[in-house]
């Protein structure tokens, strides 16, 4: 990124803003004061030990999980607000946010009775009222970009896990989101299928898409991240460029975690 681009990014409001989020499940404090701003065009990769709150955090941004205190804003619209003791979640704002955020889950959640093409076409037709011909064109373009041009007429059960996940990514992109959230998108895949999904995620990152990625793939994180965020016990332990986090982390716990997973 050039200095001018860096300055432009720094002066714009963040696309996603998470302010002082807390959340307790039963007795367990799962998030304990998390702040996170993600700028347009930024690729933020969240890493950390299992149970540190990564998935919960990313689900909150899409309003799939509520917060006990704090505030979440997407593209200037407050999605959830619990800053003064009362939780407010505006249904219209949530709908808007979900349109602006494409989410990819560990499990692909495709419609089993629809072909790959129909899975990708459907949401824009139903939700955004995009004309069918246009949606079909867009879906074909996206599936081709995902390396699935010869698979458009297959149903999910006829596709490998890696192919299904690429259809799921195409489906999220078909809604033309402003940002994409990935929650351990490769964790459910057989090892030999992980690479093909990481490749399309890498291409997407290089295309300038704003992304928050929760992953255990450290080499991938080092390649695509503008910023690596290390979570531990419901907090952001530290964050920085991949170069800093992977080579010169500030915290012994980060070192410990990285030693265990790399
Ligand atoms: P990570 O993604 O870092 O592995 P999670 O956000 O999935 O962490 O989970 C953090 C903690 O919250 C874990 O201890 C998990 O068991 C707990 N947790 C997550 N979701 C729920 C839920 N819906 N109800 C109760 N506990 C939950």
Structure write-up:
The chain is α/β, with parallel strands linked by helices. It is built from ten helices and eleven strands. The protein has helices at 3-11, 54-61, 91-100, 116-127, 132-145, 161-174, 191-206, 218-224, 242-247, 252-261; strands spanning 16-25, 28-38, 43-47, 69-74, 77-82, 88-89, 101-104, 179-183, 210-214, 227-232, 235-240. The strands form two sheets. Strands 7-8-9-3-10-11 form a six-stranded mixed β-sheet, with helices on both faces. Bound molecules: adenosine-5'-diphosphate (ADP). Residues 25, 28, 30, 48, 50-56 line the site of adenosine-5'-diphosphate.
The biggest sheet, with number of strands, parallel, antiparallel or mixed sense and barrel status, is: 6 strands, mixed
Radius of gyration: 18 Å
Low-confidence stretches are none
Kindly report how far apart the N and C termini lie: 28 Å
Q: Could you say which structural class the secondary elements and strand pairing correspond to?
A: alpha/beta
Helix residue percentage: 40-55%
In total, the number of strands is: 11
- Strand residue percentage: 25-35%
Order of helices and strands: HEEEHEEEHEHHHEHEHEEHH
Count, helices: 10
Query: Strand arrangement, largest sheet?
Result: 7-8-9-3-10-11
Q: Identify every distinct bound molecule in the structure, by name, code or SMILES.
A: adenosine-5'-diphosphate
Principal-axes shape call: globular
Query: What is the residue-averaged pLDDT?
Result: 94
